[in-house]
Every structure is written in structure tokens, then in C-alpha cells.
Amino acid sequence: MNRIAKELLARIKQEGSVNGQVIKVDRFLNHMVDPLLIDRLGTELASRFADHKIDKIITAESSGIMIAQAISRHLGVPFVYAKKKRPLTMPKFFAASSYSFTKEESTTLYVSHEVIQEGERLLFADDFFAVGSTFKAIEQIIEQADATLVGAAVIINKSGRRDIESILTLEELTAETLC
């Protein structure tokens, strides 16, 4: 486990909790945000994709915005977030449905044609990866845009999927919080 993973684990033990699949990080990641921690997490995740040609980072509104911004800053590329409501200023858009198990609701995500171009290479970023509903919706949007998904970077991967780059996995969290 690297230094930033150990730091995140310590913060979860001190200020958060792990209860099965539910990881409470409201005091430093996704309700109140520690900008210095987010920046360090973004540095780590960006370093894992430094050798990929990435045009943009993409996430969904709203919890993924902080980590997407940090990663985009370190890679020197813009980030896009899929909106949960389509504004009147978005006449042409890509859209896909996503179900939030945490909020127990389905949402349609919208991305304007103006912000993703055909052939662009996008990196998905989010705070958590659970069952992948948001990720699937973003994949569909990227496919609609004739762009390419180059990978996924998340703070905590709860899924067990090994193709998702993360700082910590649920498996690591469970093992370490039981110690």
C-alpha cells in the first residue's frame, strides 16, 4: 500500500466508517471536502495515466467533480461532467440512464455535443466505483460521441473489478479496518 492509500485509510479510520459496502467519508471527501487530500489523490491517479494520451476527464455530477478536477489539473486537460438535468442551453446532447443504489433513484445523465468531440480519448473519474451504473452510462455517452474510453480512475473501488484504477479497494478497506 502506497503513502496516499495509507493516508486515506487513516482518514477513514479517524473520521469515517466502513459498514459492509457503505463507506462514510462525508467529513473529507464527498460532503465536506479536504482540497489538499483531493489534490494528493488526484496526483496519484493522474500519475497512473500519464503515459496515455488523454484529451479530457469525464465524470458525473456531483461527487465525482472534485477528483475529476484534481486529475485534470495534474494531466493538464479539461474535465467534463455529465449533468443530471438538461439545461435549455443544451439543444444537442448525448444521454444515458444511471441508477444510484445509494440514493435509490434512476437519473438520466446529459453531455452536450459541444464538449465531447468524435475521436477524443476520455478518462472516467469518480469518487467511488460500486456496481458500475454511472460508469456504464458514461461508456454509453462516450460511445454515442464516437469517442474512446481509455480507462477509469476512482478513489475507492468497491466492485472487485481489477480494470479500475483506485487508491483503495473495499477488500483493502475491510482487511485494514478489521485490524
SSE succession: HEEHHEHEEEEHEEH
Output the CATH topology.
Rossmann fold
Structural class: alpha/beta
CATH class: Alpha Beta
Describe the global form.
globular
Largest sheet: 5 strands, parallel
| C-alpha termini separation | 15 Å
- Report strand order across the widest sheet: 4-3-7-8-9
Helix content: 25-40%
* Beta-strand content bin: 25-35%
- Count up the domains: 1
CATH arch. level architecture: 3-Layer(aba) Sandwich
Number of strands: 9
Write up this protein.
It is a single chain. By secondary structure, the protein is of the alpha/beta class. The protein has a single domain (3-177), classed as 3-Layer(aba) Sandwich (Rossmann fold). Helix content is 35%, strand content 31%. It is built from 6 helices and 9 strands. It has helices at 3-15, 26-30, 35-47, 65-75, 133-144, 170-177, and strands at residues 17-19, 22-24, 56-60, 79-82, 93-100, 105-112, 121-129, 148-157, 165-169. The strands form 3 sheets. Strands 4-3-7-8-9 form a 5-stranded parallel β-sheet. A two-stranded antiparallel sheet has the order 1-2. It has a two-stranded antiparallel sheet with strand order 5-6. Strand 3, helix 4 (65-75) and strand 4 (79-82) form a beta-alpha-beta unit. Helix 3 crosses helix 4 (65-75). The protein is globular and about 45 Å long. The two termini are 15 Å apart. The mean pLDDT is 95.
